[in-house]
Design a protein that fits this description.
The chain is mainly α and 200 residues long. It is built from six helices and no strands. The mean pLDDT is 87.
Length: 200
């Protein structure tokens, strides 16, 4: 039977951290980061609430017509990208590398189309962020979301490069899962932004 001194020889440094078997620490880290991002969006939605509900400012401003149909098509594009990134993750979980690669490439393509469409919309809406509280909130919320889409695309680009280099497997797929979680968050936030800004 090993003595206390012998046991100590086998382990050096601080004690091993207790880790839950249910949630991987990397996934938990992304979920906590997303929680902080929800609070960031919440601050912008609070400003929207005070501008539109408390102060009763016209939404949209008089003489402005928001491109609801184009934004709706863009919404469909982004929602579709959630399915493609889910397909990529499920494929690698079954060791289907071709399916994972196709899913990631399609997700990237759809994400870039979304950003390009939004940029084109900005060039045609006919008002600027400096045009009153409406313009500030519109560009603030949609621009904040667009920045998150850009970050998500960067994460997915790295994941795609690694996917084509053979870095993932059914046992090691967190490099696909974690960007996918962030991408789903981006999609859900757009549905909220689209409904709030364009529909209500």
């Amino acid at each position: 039977m090993a003595t206390h001194a012998e046991a100590a020889d086998h382990h050096h440094g601080p004690p091993i951290a207790n880790q839950s078997s249910r949630v991987d620490s990397r996934v938990l880290g992304m979920l906590l980061f997303i929680a902080s991002e929800v609070m960031l969006f919440g601050a912008f939605f609070t400003a929207y609430f005070f501008v539109r509900v408390v102060n009763g400012i016209a939404w949209p401003s008089e003489g402005i017509e928001l491109p609801v149909f184009v934004a709706g098509v863009n919404t469909a594009i982004l929602v579709t990208s959630s399915f493609t990134v889910h397909w990529a993750l499920q494929s690698i979980k079954r060791d289907n590398r071709a399916g994972m690669q196709a899913g990631l490439v399609l997700t990237l393509a759809l994400g870039f189309v979304f950003l390009l469409t939004q940029a084109r919309e900005y060039s045609r809406v006919g008002f600027a962020p400096s045009d009153g509280a409406f313009g500030t909130i519109f560009y603030g919320l949609t621009g904040l979301h667009g920045a998150h889409v850009f970050v998500g695309l960067m994460l997915l680009t790295f994941a795609t490069i690694r996917a084509f280099r053979g870095h993932y497997s059914a046992a090691h797929h967190h490099g696909v899962e974690i960007p996918g979680i962030y991408w789903h968050f981006v999609d859900v936030m757009w549905i909220v932004v689209y409904t709030t800004i364009y529909i209500l």
